[in-house]
Amino acid sequence: MTASETDRVTAAVQRLRHAGLRNTAARRAVLGQLAHAVGGRGHLTVTELHHALLARGVTVELSTVHRVLRQLVELGIAHTVPVGRTTTFGLADDAHHHAVCGACGDMRQLPDEAVDASIAAARAVGIDPDPAGQPSGVVVYGRCAVCRAATR
Ligand SMILES: [Zn+2]
Ligand SMILES: [Zn+2]
Q1: All structural domains of the chain
Q2: Which residues make up the binding site for Zn(2+) (predicted)?
């Protein structure tokens, strides 16, 4: 894990503790994998997450991964983005929007300016964003370059 991944996991574990949840190996492993994804696509499906953990030698039941993710979402530590019929999970520790290829599921987190712009837009229509809330989760669906080339 990189230093920033470790920081993210530490901060998330802190929030779990505040919520009265213990810092279990399974929770730490799931958080570590989600933090690792931030540098890439940002989000993972439950299956991808489970396979990545098994590949790293972390023995954990799929049902446990499901349960941990549900807890993280309930606490606002993670959030979901639907891609096709599956749900992807990503850390919600910093506000971000998403651009998703609806054909292959490739995903990118959009730069901070996108979040700033949506906050400004909300203010402009008279809604002052909740400072405690994460103004993240806007999803723009489309086609990535690879999929556009394939259908040409
Ligand atoms: Zn996200
Ligand atoms: Zn694509």
Answers
A1: 1-92 (1.10.10.10), 94-152 (3.30.1490.190)
A2: 101, 104, 144, 147
